[in-house]
Amino acid sequence: MKVLKKLLMTAMMVAASVGLTTAQTVQKQVVEEGGTGPFKSEVVGDASCPGFTVYRPQNLKEIVAKQGALPVIVYANGACFNNNVEMRLLLSEVASYGYVAAAIGPYDEADVMAQWRGVLKSAYPETKGDVIMANGEKILPLTPEEKKAREEEQAKQRELAAKAAKKNKKQQAPAVPQFRTYPKMLLEVLDWLTEQNATQGSEYYHCLALDHVAAMGQSCGGAQVLGVAYDPRIKTCVMLNSGIGDMEMMGTTKDNLKNLHTPMFYMIGGPGDIAYANAQKDYERIADNIPVVMLNSKDGHSGTYYEKYGGNYAKAVVKWLDWQLKGQVGQSALFLDDEYLKMKFPEWQGVRKNF
User: Fold this and answer.
1) Percent of the chain that is helix, strand, coil (3-state, to 5)
2) Of 7, 66, 304, 352, whose CB count within 10 A is highest?
3) Which spans in 47-143 are helix H?
4) DSSP 30
5) What is the H or E stretch that residue 264 is in?
6) Are 37 and 96 in contact (CB under 8 A)?
7) CB distance 52 to 268 below 8 Å
8) Who contacts 138 (Cβ-Cβ below 8 Å, separation ≥6)?
9) What is the pLDDT of residues 147-204, one digit of tens each?
10) What is the pLDDT of residue 141?
């Protein structure tokens, strides 16, 4: 009996260390009443995939029974952070239109508005007017006094860091920060979804259209998308405020553009977006056999992700995915018809090639 108990305990410890093999929701929340789409969405933390967060329609099985399997999105975060809270409004909104999105970063119930408040204060998009967050809060640019105080604090922190580095230069190199992520995480979570789709008893069993997959990333996350865009399972890529240009980021360079094999969508914040120049270079360098659309707004690098339901960026993303992954040709007007673009978003500009 003691031997049996010991074997059982060992098996339980091994199972705990590698995680469950079958999807199991352990955390859940609803953002902005589940979005504006026909299928109210939810944000899920899964015990078998603790390093990622899933955005999906509520009552997934019932919806799939009526609509069929749903397309999939794998998403990488701005700054390559291991946290997706800043994109929570957009991802929740997209999921409400019938998508299952798996985002890098563990489930987190942090306040979305608190996350965005500091970002917007420090990187106020001067190219647009008032900045109003989803909760109705108006964000104002830093005053000259606030800017001076921030610069002084940053200088102080740099000085302290330099002293610490000099003191510890003979010590072992510090570990990689926990927030760092890597491109292949997008493929790892796609592997997990593929396994769950084939596993009887899983919450995702026969729920996912794995022949309709998009890779999407914002800023540094876009570099991660380019790093895995060669994968034949990926059918389209969405680059939000991102471009590689002549940079090297997350092991990705302009050479990765040669590996593209799917239609590409760049959603950029105009000249005020730090990704603007790199995105222009990408557009010019993408091969003549790859369809690519680039839209530019006046929202800067922060897009409209802090606005209700992810703002106009979420609307554009839904239209692109509906066209590319669901075959809804009518949604292509935003990307192929200049008059329609001008009517819907008069301040936006668009270019396209290879269509």
Assistant:
1) 45, 20, 40
2) 304
3) 60-67, 88-95, 112-122
4) -
5) strand 264-268
6) yes
7) no
8) 130, 131, 132
9) 888 888 888 988 888 888 787 765 555 554 555 799 999 999 999 999 999 999 999 9
10) 82
Torsion, CA 332, CA 186, CA 273, CA 94, rounded to 10: 40
Q: Which two tokens stand for residue 93?
A: 């909104």
Angle, helices 88-95/311-326, rounded to nearest 10 degrees: 40
Question: What are the backbone angles phi and psi of residue 252, rounded to the nearest 5°?
Answer: -105, 140
**Adjacent-strand bridge partners of 138:** 132
- 106, burial (CB in 10 Å: exposed 0-12, middle 13-18, buried 19+): middle
How many angstroms separate the CA atoms of 230 and 226, rounded? 8
CA 228 to chain centre: 14
Q: Beta strand pairing status for 25-29 and 131-132?
A: unpaired
Measured between alpha carbons, how far is 355 from 352 in angstroms, rounded to an integer?
8
Q: In this predicted model, what pLDDT tens digit does every residue of 325-349 receive, in sequence order?
A: 999 999 999 999 999 999 999 999 9
Structure tokens at 276: 């603007």
Measured CA to CA, the distance from residue 112 to residue 70 in angstroms comes to 26
Distance from C-alpha of 236 to C-alpha of 179, rounded to nearest angstrom? 26
